[in-house]
């Protein structure tokens, strides 16, 4: 039997589309999916359906699957994150040889990836944790891929991963080696965290327009379409306009029938946990995550509305709103991304990953959910200064913030006065105003800590690192 060049485990939404993408590029692929009682044979269904007539070999037995692959084996796991990855690794291991490569392409917790790298070290299996973004469409036509882990694998898997990656207008693939350890999955986690902040901020703008009482769904779609022709050009803005325009078979706006309780699968939570562990203030991501939690408390919100009323308004003439909201969203978005890149930098230092932040912004420029025009400028900023302390301090973004932050102030204060909840955008402004304070109020916090717990404090008139205690009473 002619052997396949590449193997994919898991024929769900992502796996099946990646297989089709590889097959389109002329790669001979073997696929595996488990057989489950009472469920159709996914391999058979795939080979008869979308996979028909392509160079794809299908298996429901891991030994046969492994034996169908040329050496060194290159296997991509596209299964549910968590136990399924460990189960598949355990199942595959007896049929693999030293030098074979296993790539976990799911949204795995980077701590699991670090553990798996350790566990596989002695086996000689080269393990890679690759974040993949772009959803179904990206998997099929070009995704943003963030591989990290055992670097010895990179040369062997690079041609395949770069083949299925999205391409920038200059032809460069949105896939480059991220770094050692769990860096690939960490970068994907923060990508998703930024995605949470971006989505929440867009939702806050939608709510502002909706609650101003001046915009229909179609008019809001027009506003977002206009945003998408300017500095906010991005996939999330583009799909927001499409969602707003969509009507069901009864002519009703589909969005109006979607329950306002946002789900989540874990990457936002892991981002926020990492923010706390690394001491990195990713407040926009945290607020976006917490907003999803509050949104899920549907009954609690009904009680809140009964007790306090749910009226809210936004007092601005409709003709002025588009431009002000655009600038406010732009400022908030830059701040959220700056926080995201700061945590990448903090993790890079802590784990010795030597992340290239400009390159990461480039990989996110195509294929992924947070792809956006302004990421070109992020790449430029980190290329000009790879040790940039904060993205906001780069020449370009400092100027962009200077010219847009007053809109964020105006929108935030009108929203606060009118009772519109804007957790992510308010937190962006609070962060911005904090990072430009030479005199923060935290002297008081230190004094309070010293008062009640003798925790000591540093003094403004002594070198850093010298600690003092005062008897305050
Ligand atoms: N959907 C998306 O937009 C994106 C998803 N991802 C990530 O990619 C991975 C796959 O996602 P997606 O394709 O959407 O998921 P699906 O739910 O469509 O498919 C999941 C796949 O995992 C398999 N699987 C589940 N549990 C086990 C198990 N215990 N043992 C073996 N196989 C198992 C399923 O097999 P079976 O059919 O037999 O249950 C199926 O093949 C996830 O980690 C996800 O977070 C990443 C980027 C985007
Ligand atoms: O990885 C993704 C996109 O980049 C997935 O779509 C992910 O499921 C999104 O996260 P959540 O379900 O928590 O909103």
From TrEMBL:
Catalytic reactions of this protein: 6-phospho-D-gluconate + NADP(+) = D-ribulose 5-phosphate + CO2 + NADPH
Record's keyword annotation contains Oxidoreductase: yes
Gene Ontology molecular function: phosphogluconate dehydrogenase (decarboxylating) activity
Record-linked Pfam families: 6PGD (PF00393), NAD_binding_2 (PF03446)
Domain 6-phosphogluconate dehydrogenase C-terminal stretches: 184-473
Entry-linked SMART domains: 6PGD
EC number: 1.1.1.44
Pathway assigned in UniProt: Carbohydrate degradation; pentose phosphate pathway; D-ribulose 5-phosphate from D-glucose 6-phosphate (oxidative stage): step 3/3
Coiled-coil regions listed in the entry: none
Subunit note: Homodimer.
Name recorded for this polypeptide: 6-phosphogluconate dehydrogenase, decarboxylating
Organism: Intestinicryptomonas porci
